[in-house]
Amino acid sequence: MTHVDIEMLTELKELMEDEFKNLLQTYLDDSEKHVIQIQSAINAGDANDVRGSAHSLKGSSGNLGATQLAEFCRQLEFMGRDNELSAAQSTYDTMLEEYQIVKKIISGELMKS
Asked: Which of 6, 33, 47, 83 has the greatest count of CB atoms below 10 A from its CB?
């Protein structure tokens, strides 16, 4: 399984040039906040916050080619939208595992830039 589409990242790097590092750093900073917010919202039973934070993380992850992570976020987003959080913790746990892998890959790309 490909956790991050490196070809997509390479294209972004060529397109964004000097701003690429800022993009990666912003993703790392913002994504960490969203991950924490999703867990807090699940704990609080706040479906709307699950939806909103998962939606934001889905978009930014998809933009960087982390399609599997984006898919887990999509699932959480729909759970929040439907106000059905019974499976949210399990999906979150799986999403968190994928996020840790993606974070490591993105951090590595940031170090190379």
From this structure: 47
Q: Taking the mean position of all CA atoms in its chain, how far away is CA 27? A: 8
pLDDT digits (tens, 9 = 90+) for 40-81: 999 999 999 999 999 999 999 999 999 999 999 999 999 999
What sign does the dihedral 103-104-108-111 (CA atoms) show? positive
Q: Where in the chain are the domains? A: 20-108
CA 106 to chain centre: 11
Q: Measured between alpha carbons, how far is 28 from 23 in angstroms, rounded to an integer?
A: 9
Cα–Cα distance for residue pair 27/106, rounded to 1 Å:
9
Give exposure, 96-112, as e/b (b: 16+ Cβ within 10 Å). eebbeebbebbeebbee
Could you give the dihedral angle defined by the CA atoms of residues 37, 102, 24 and 46, in that order, rounded to the nearest 10 degrees?
-10
